[in-house]
Design goal:
By secondary structure, the chain is α/β, with parallel strands linked by helices. It has a single domain, classed as 3-Layer(aba) Sandwich (Rossmann fold). It has 7 helices and 7 strands. Helix 1 links the parallel strand 2 and strand 3. The chain is globular, with a radius of gyration of 17 Å.
Length: 207
């Protein structure tokens, strides 16, 4: 299949999809895109604006995964806004999230899913909630228990959970932030399996 992986990061969601597909990954940060390419050398990695890329290439793929930027929707960020320690300021929620959902709902002919954090506000379009994420999709995502320890606080812990070791990379982006932005590979696999009713691997393998 031809797969489009938008806002790809270092590929947490994509890690367990296998190597038999033709995957295009779009990431706007060159440093992060370089790490992704090291992990998945067979993927076509494009350094570009994923939002614009989606609009121009909407119906060229069999499956689209999009994970638009989440901080402005995050309950944690809002919680820390105007606090003495963090000093974060009020921001407009980034509405590109809903632009993409509506674009895909209205015009996309393939299987698609948009992933984001559980927001501090009631979502404007009803999502499916699964494993600490919101998902919008044109297929059913079943609720299956996924065993995954949350070890985001330390770099080694996040590396252990995701199986993506970035400890040796020299990057201006904080490594902990890079890993925190990853979707758990087991979640990415489960959503992929639900889209095509396949079982490339069983979740029991990772428990």
């Amino acid at each position: 299949m031809k797969i489009l992986n938008l806002y790809a990061g270092i590929g947490g969601n994509r890690k367990l999809w296998g190597e038999e597909h033709e995957i295009t990954a779009v990431e706007n940060n060159p440093e992060i895109a370089r790490i992704y390419k090291d992990f998945f050398p067979n993927d076509n990695v494009i350094v570009a604006d994923a939002h614009e890329y989606l609009l121009k290439h909407l119906n060229e793929f069999d499956f689209i995964w999009s994970s638009p930027p989440c901080p402005t929707h995050s309950r944690i960020r809002k919680c820390f806004t105007n606090t003495e320690h963090y000093g974060l300021k009020e921001v407009y929620p980034d509405m590109r999230l809903y632009e993409e959902i509506l674009l895909l709902q209205g015009y996309c002919k393939c299987k698609w899913v948009v992933e984001n954090v559980i927001s501090w506000y009631d979502p404007l379009i009803r999502p499916f909630e699964f494993h600490r994420h919101y998902f919008w999709s044109n297929f059913t995502i079943s609720k299956e228990k996924i065993i995954s320890e949350r070890k985001h606080a330390e770099l080694d812990g996040a590396t252990e959970v995701y199986g993506l070791d970035i400890s040796t990379y020299d990057t201006e982006v904080k490594k902990r932030k890079i890993l925190r932005n990853c979707v758990d590979p087991k979640v990415g696999l489960h959503v992929f399996n639900c889209a095509f009713k396949t079982k490339q691997y069983t979740l029991q393998t990772f428990k």
